[in-house]
Amino acid sequence: QVQLQESGPGLVKPSETLSLICTVSGAPISSYCWSWIRQSAGKRLEWIGRICRGDSPNRNPSLESRVSLSLDTSKNQFSLKLTSVTTADTAVYHCAREVAGPGGWFDRWGQGTLVTVSS
Amino acid sequence: DIVMTQSPDSLAVSLGERATINCKSSQSLFYNSNNKNYLAWYQQRPGQPPKLLIYWASTRESGVPDRFSGSGSGTDFTLTINSLQAEDVALYYCQQYFSTPGSFGQGTKLEI
């Protein structure tokens, strides 16, 4: 059974860097593509970016300059860093497995972690 | 970027009745080379992450009840839920994966 679990600080100050890790169990991280998706209080879902082993990461152009993604196959984890955060980055951040990707649908999701940007 | 628009924003349906949710994309999601529409549907119950229901516009994910069905092609798609159950109260989202960045509709809230 594939499970994903996000971890990281729940509170980040404006202008600082948001860092999250997604730990995957039940599937080798090297065999799929993995994405980050966030959900604002208004419930809109926004794709942030994806990483696949052996490929360059893809990022949403709206966030591209602030996003970095990485994969740690030894720990079966992938991570997100979002720099220079503002209150607009406050959201629930989900990690998800992407099927038929890159450029596919998401068949497994983490529960999500709320990140609040506030001083 | 492809913009996805759902309608209605919310709807209330009686138990046992049918619910219909529409999704419109700003450009065609149909790929001629494989005759597939690059569209998925998700259900999000309160306090839960989204759950995949349908992909390729009409293929049900394993374990999803057959009262959930997807239809449509090109730019217009529909999610139909027959014989509505209380457990179907949720937000429903469409998502296009025809091009990067993948994008979601704004969501439709389904109530009893």
Question: Can you walk through the features of this model?
Answer:
With 119 residues, chain A is mostly beta strands. Chain A is built from no helices and 11 strands. In chain A, the strands form 2 sheets. In chain A, strands 2, 4, 5, 6, 9, 10 and 11 form a 7-stranded mixed sheet that branches. Chain A has a 4-stranded antiparallel sheet with strand order 1-3-8-7, with no helix packed on it. The model of chain A has no long low-confidence stretch (mean pLDDT 94). Chain B is mainly beta and 112 residues long. Helix content of chain B is 0%, strand content 50%. Chain B is globular. The mean pLDDT of chain B is 96.
Keywords:
heterodimer, A: 119 residues, mainly beta, seven-stranded mixed sheet, four-stranded antiparallel sheet, 11 strands, 0% helix, B: 112 residues
Which secondary structure elements does this structure contain, and how are they paired or packed?
The complex is a heterodimer of chains A (119) and B (112).
Chain A: E1 3-7, E2 11-12, E3 18-25, E4 33-39, E5 45-52, E6 58-59, E7 67-72, E8 77-82, E9 91-99, E10 105-109, E11 113-117
Parallel strand pairs in A: 2-11
Antiparallel strand pairs in A: 1-3, 3-8, 4-5, 4-9, 5-6, 7-8, 9-10, 9-11
Chain B: E1 4-7, E2 10-12, E3 19-25, E4 30-31, E5 36-37, E6 39-44, E7 51-55, E8 59-60, E9 68-73, E10 76-81, E11 90-96, E12 103-104, E13 108-111
Parallel strand pairs in B: 2-13
Antiparallel strand pairs in B: 1-3, 3-10, 4-5, 6-7, 6-11, 7-8, 9-10, 11-12, 11-13
Helix percent band of chain A: under 10%
Rg calc of chain A: 13 Å
The count of β-strands of chain A is 11
Task: Bin the strand percentage of chain B.
Answer: over 45%
Q: Which whole number gives the mean pLDDT of chain B?
A: 96
- Cα-to-Cα separation, first versus last residue of chain B: 34 Å
Could you state the oligomeric state of the chains shown? Answer: heterodimer
Name the average pLDDT of chain A: 94
In helices, the fraction of residues of chain B equals under 10%
Query: How many DSSP helices of chain B?
Result: 0
Q: Note the beta-strand portion of chain A.
A: over 45%
Largest β-sheet summary of chain B:
7 strands, mixed
